[in-house]
Amino acid sequence: MFNNILKNISPVVKNILLINVIFYVAQWTIPSFTQNFELYPITSEQFRPWQLATHFFMHSPYSIGHIFFNMFALVIFGSQLEKIWGPQKFLIYYISCALGASILHLGVTYFRIQSIETGLSLEDLELFRANAFEAFQKGMNFKDPILAQLNILHNSPMLGASGAIFGLLAAFGYLFPNTELMLLFPPIPIKAKYFVIGYAVLELYLGISNNPSDNVAHFAHLGGALIGIIIVLYWSKKRNSFF
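RESULT FIELD:
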């Protein structure tokens, strides 16, 4: 099975997979590599513009499942889409979904930060700004739950290809709506269109819930899917450009 999958990997997908693996190895071997290239909120002292272009080639170094499932989905869905669109269009689509994911994530995070800060007194806000990043770096947090949440929002980075992968899922669900996919949990078949819609609804619910213990960037996933659908719908109206 895996031999057949590897033989059918398309060229751009193969290169994206290789870059992700190289970045993953670098995260383990080069000090501060992760901190420099993962994406921090724009209000964070650690935010750098280039992180917009590097974070989606990186994955959590503490979870092999993070990179494995993203790369597995990249190979399965990405190779099929690249064969339809060609290398150039596929690369444009993939990067656009990744950037769309990061922009929506940054926007939602900024909105949440502003909504909390407007409810703080000037004294509390000054106290927070003076100590937030140092406390976060030392693994400490504020006793006040509001300041603690604000500290997490300000300084928690995002990394991973999940936003771009959700864009691939959205495109696959649109182009092959009745193709049956086999779920892992539970192991039952489901049509691609129902899988994508159900997954998107779940991500929206989890994103709105804003559970403090949930460290998944749900709006990044939704951003990738949203940009992906917009691009696919546009290309579908320009049939000569679509295939």
